[in-house]
Every structure is written in C-alpha cells, then in structure tokens.
Amino acid sequence: MDLTDRKLLNVIQSKFPLVDRPYQHLGEELGIDESEVIDRLADLKRKNVLRQLSAIFDTRRLGYKTTLVAMAFEPDKLHKGALRINKHPGVSHNYAREGSYFNLWFTLAVPGDHDLETTVEVMGRDTKALSYRMMPTIRFFKIGVNFDMVKEKGSSVDYSPDGYAKDAAKGWNEAVPLTEDDKDAIRELQEDLPLVSRPFDDMAQRLGKTTEALFATAQDFQDRRFMRRFSAVLHHRRSGFKANAMIVWKVPGERSEEVGMTMAANKAVTHCYERPTFPDWPYTHFTMVHATSTDGCEEIEREISEATGITERMLLYSSREYKKTRVRYFVPEYDQYQYSGVSNPTPTAQRS
After folding, report:
1. Burial (0-12, 13-18, 19+ Cβ within 10 Å), 232
2. Would you call 93 a catalytic residue per the annotation?
3. What is the C-alpha to C-alpha distance for residues 318 and 322, in angstroms, rounded to an integer?
C-alpha cells in the first residue's frame, strides 16, 4: 500500500459519501480520478485489506438479541467447532484466543422471536464444547473501530449506544418500530457496495426509489439512531495491525461507570463493555485493542491500567480469526438455521 491507499482507507472508514458517484467524490478529495479510486479499492479487496463497504446498524435497535459467547474446547476439536459455529448467520466475530480456559470467543445475534440461550445450547451440543458462558452486555461504553492507516495507530470513533458519548440519546437499548419498507432498505444497505461508477442505482431501483430518496432514507435511519453510518470494514491484520488483544479487567462495582468511561477515552480502544461475572470469572470490563505488535497492545494495557488504577486484568490474544463480518438482518438464513435439524440440546456442553 502506498500513501494514497492509506489516505483513501482513512476516509472510507469514517464516513463514506452517500452520493450518486461516491468514488468520484472520494477522488476529488484525494486529488485522483474516479477510475483510480475504483481500481485502488478493487486491489485492496483482492489483497483482503478492505472487507466490505456497507451500512452499520445497531443490533438492539433493530430488535435483535445479542451476546458474547465464550466456549471451551479440547484442542483437537476447536477448529471443527469454530467452523460449525461460523454457519450461523448471526455470528459476526469468531476468534480462537489464548490466555484462558475458554479458547473460542464469538458474538451472536438472533431475531427477537428466536431464543438466544437455546441457540447457544444447540451450538454447544453440536460442536461438542466442554462448557460455555453467555456474556451479554450490561453497559456499552464504546464501539468505534477505526485504524489510522497513515500514522499506523488505532484512532477509534467515540461512539457509545448506551449513552456515554457526547451524541447520546435515550432509548439505545430499545427496539424501534420498523415498517416493511424500512426492512427492505436495511437489506439493501447492509450488502457490500459494488465498485462501479454509480453503485447505488441498482439498489434504488430494486427499492422502487430514486437515489435521492434512498439517501434520504439512510439519513432518516441515522436520525432514528438505528443506523450508525455507512463505512468500510478493514481486515486489521492485512492492514498492518497484526496484534489483537481482548483485555479483561476486574473493576469494583462502585467504579464501573467511571472506569468504563476512562477506558473508552483511550483512542486505541475500539470496544469497551461491562459484562456479567461468574464465580470463577471475576472480570467485568472488556476492552478490545489492536496494534502493529504485541508490544503495542501491552503498552496500551499499561496506559489503561495507569489511567484507571485497575491492576487485575488478563490479555487474551487472538490466535486465529475464523469469522469477521457485519451482521445481516431480516434475511431467511436465521429461520433456515433454526429449523435445519438442530433440536434439544444435550448435556455435552455445560453452561458455566
């Protein structure tokens, strides 16, 4: 990647232009022509640096239920189990991680009329997991993945659905009413944008709208606060951020909000959550960090510890990425998975 590639990636991570000819718009900003922008993005996709260009939606505001799941596998069953878990359409992130008994960590979302706990139980049975824990979010301090490709540092967006950011509003935990037209537009906006001169034309045509009306719909979704933005997702390892650590912290209950906000203020932290504890799992706060090396992750860990005074923590490094994508909403794959022959769970996998 040259400097122009890096500048282009910086721009499309923050806010992709919703206009008829977005690649021309990007080219004007960078001093190159439209065809060069398209060629560069195509090359970055071929190299698997750029994963996707699409809308980002808030899972809970769309009425979906979601949780982080930690599973433990025998080492020789981990790979096969992870591939099986990938088949669920609501699994967006799935990583093997080192540093704790639980060696597979994934996020799962299901529609409001599906049972989240039963889905996880079935997954545990089917994959022959030893045990698992469901760790839904208690408080959501930050989500804002962004990599400064020029400076090669994390530069996350200050965004918190639960009301800890400057643009907070009430009701981030509540599902909003959606019409069938809303759902149709969500289905279109969540798909990867084609690399052609007028990429929104076909999308608008399928919806029976003009592109101007489509862009107005996207703005309405943002105003109603269930669409965060339209932007790029990068492959962090291919982008140069080769180290990825989930740092878990034991935070006293009376300091939960204060510490969470301090952690979220660190630009290298892309995600910051409070999650439930268990008798043998005392860690309440989860921070995700990315760096160009493990030394970089450990430097961020020290910064957070010094800023908060929290010393009891553990780093869980990802050893393999099995899946990372954006959740697709209102698609038939959820029902197809649910009724594909999986039934009542057996005691093979025990909930911890």
Report:
1. buried
2. yes
3. 10
Query: Per-residue pLDDT tens for 85-116?
Result: 999 999 999 999 999 999 999 999 999 999 99
Question: Is 192:169 a contact under the CB 8 Å cutoff?
Answer: no
Q: Which of 191, 189, 140 is nearest to 165 (CA)?
A: 140
Q: Tell me, what's the pLDDT at 166? A: 46
34, two tokens: 């439209």
How far CA 135 is from CA of 16, 83, 172, 180, 329, in Å, comes to 32, 21, 19, 32, 22
Report the CATH number at residue 295. Answer: 3.30.70.3460
- Is 112 within a domain? yes
**Selected catalytic residue, list 25, 79, 88, 93:** 93
Q: pLDDT tens digits, residue range 259-316?
A: 999 999 998 898 999 999 999 899 999 999 988 889 999 999 999 999 999 999 999 9
Task: Specify the pTM.
Answer: 0.85
Q: List CB contacts of 41: < 8 A, sequence separation 6 or more.
A: 8, 12, 23, 50, 53, 195
Domain count, the chain: 1
Structural domain for 273, as ranges: 61-158+237-335
Residue 268 domain flag = yes
